Amino acid sequence: MTALDMIPDVTYPPTDLWSDEPPLESDLHLQQIIILLSCLELLWRERSDYYASGNLTIYYNAEQLKKRDFCGPDFFV
């Protein structure tokens, strides 16, 4: 018996999954978000009273309907 015989079959997820989330625009876009987060963390390294992130969808209104047009912010604090 070889090592390859002991590896279980790998099941891959489908590649046609639907999502209503827009994809990240580009690698540059991701790098810009990382730079913004890094700068803010450096600037506010003494603070712990904030939250910052990017490329997330925020549902801030309990009555907001998902069927309406909505875009998540690229970066938020």
Can you tell me about this structure?
It is a single chain. By secondary structure, this protein is mainly alpha-helical. The chain contains two helices and two strands. The protein has helices spanning 3-6, 27-43; strands at 53-54, 75-76. The chain has a two-stranded antiparallel ribbon with strand order 1-2. The mean pLDDT is 76.
Question: Notable features of this structure?
Answer:
mainly alpha; two-stranded antiparallel ribbon; extended
Concise structural overview:
The protein is mainly alpha-helical.
List low-confidence stretches: none
- Main sheet, how many strands, which sense, barrel? 2 strands, antiparallel
Widest β-sheet, arrangement of strands: 1-2
Radius of gyration in whole Å, from Cα?
20 Å
The overall pLDDT, averaged over residues, is 76
Determine the fraction of residues in helical runs and give it as a percent range: 25-40%
* Helix-and-strand structural type: mainly alpha
